[in-house]
Amino acid sequence: MQLVPMKDLLDEAYKKGYAVPALNASHLEFIKAILEVAEEQRSPVIIQTAYEEIQYADGGKTIVDLVKNIGYDKDVRVAIHLDHGPNFEAAAHCIRSGYTSVMYDGSFLPFEENISNTCKVVEMAHAVGVSVEAELGQLGTTEFGTENNNAHLTDPVKAKEFVERTGVDCLAVAIGTAHGLYKGEPHLDFDRLKKITELTRVPIVLHGGTGVPDRHIKKAISLGVSKINVSTALRKAFIEGMQKHMESHPEDLMTMYILGAGMESLKEEIRNVMKMFGSAGKL
Ligand code: 13P
After folding, report:
1. Considering only CA atoms, which residue is closest to atom 9 of ligand 1?
2. Which of 37, 118, 210, 218 could be bridged to 232 by S-S, CB 3.0 to 4.6 A?
3. Are 196 and 163 in contact (CB under 8 A)?
4. What is the pLDDT of residue 146?
5. pLDDT number for residue 140
6. What angle do CA 182, 111, 156 make, to 5 degrees?
7. Nearest to 237 by CA among 4, 58, 24, 17
8. Measured in angstroms, how far is the CA atom of residue 165 from the centroid of ligand 1?
9. Is 208's C-beta closer than 6 angstroms to any atom of ligand 1?
10. pLDDT at 151
């Protein structure tokens, strides 16, 4: 296994026109499924954990150790990334734990405060070769339907200034996606995305990958998206696999078989994602 800075994976994807799947994981079953499918599909991959997921795992070191132990004999190229880091301390914790990338999410702060906090994280992370993602604009939530009328879409000119002043390695933007399950088809603002890519010239990150139709994913990638986050779809597949198993084996008390059934269904979802994002075969 090669554990690499996320920047290495994204710069290559940006140049070659595919997106690296950034898959949320907080326990052994997800990490094992992701690494097994990454090796099988010869796909680079980002294993990411949101702050709550790190708390569930009792700290970032558990995640790093699981990835290293499960991946040590696998032919895979992996970055371990903090998703939606809430503050400087969370980024520092992950860097000390061995993460190769961190996100600092100051998207809810005023522009200048987001810049100044991001700069501090960039200075710390870059000093030790760790990549940094930041966010500008705010994603909608799926509770309000597909219109994302509560989203604040990213301003391309501000994005240029943000990237230039902070030196981030990639930028998460709001162009119409949202976290969670959509009630209908999401509307993505591709003109805005095109302008952002032209002005910033860094790999762009799309959050809320669950439920975005294939053709939108492909178009977004052609316009500079190089990292796509997927979480809900993975959890849904895992749960459905376990539910199906319990329906056909209601007496089963072997948790390893129940979790194993969840993992098989999760692995199929990960395969689909890697093929859709064009990362399969790009090891
Ligand atoms: P989904 O749960 O909608 O796939 O979004 C994941 C995400 O963007 C994590 O940051």
Report:
1. 229
2. 210
3. no
4. 47
5. 76
6. 60
7. 24
8. 27
9. yes
10. 67
- From the CB of 210, is ligand 1 less than 6 Å away? yes
What phi, psi does 78 have (nearest 5°)? -135, 140
Cα 202 to Cα 197: distance, rounded to the nearest angstrom: 7
The SS3 call for residue 172 is strand
Which residues does 273 contact at the CB level (< 8 Å), separation at least 6?
21, 23, 209, 230, 233
Q: Take residue 283 and report the two structure tokens written for it.
A: 């090891």
Predicted pLDDT at 150: 54
207 lines ligand 1 (CB under 6 A): yes
Amino acid at 60: G
175 C-alpha vs ligand 1 centroid, how far in Å?
14
pLDDT of residue 234: 98
Rounded CA separation 136/134 (Å)? 7
- Residue 125 confidence (pLDDT): 98
Tokens, residue 165: 């002043």
Ligand 1 atom 5 nearest Cα: 208
pLDDT along the chain (283 residues), means of 10: 98 98 97 98 98 97 98 98 98 98 98 98 98 94 54 94 98 96 93 98 97 97 98 98 98 98 98 98 96
Find, among 193, 192, 203, the residue nearest to 223 by Cα: 193
Cα(251)–Cα(76) distance, integer angstroms: 37
Catalytic residue numbers read 83
pLDDT of residue 145: 46
Quick check: CB of 179 below 6 Å from ligand 1?
Answer: yes
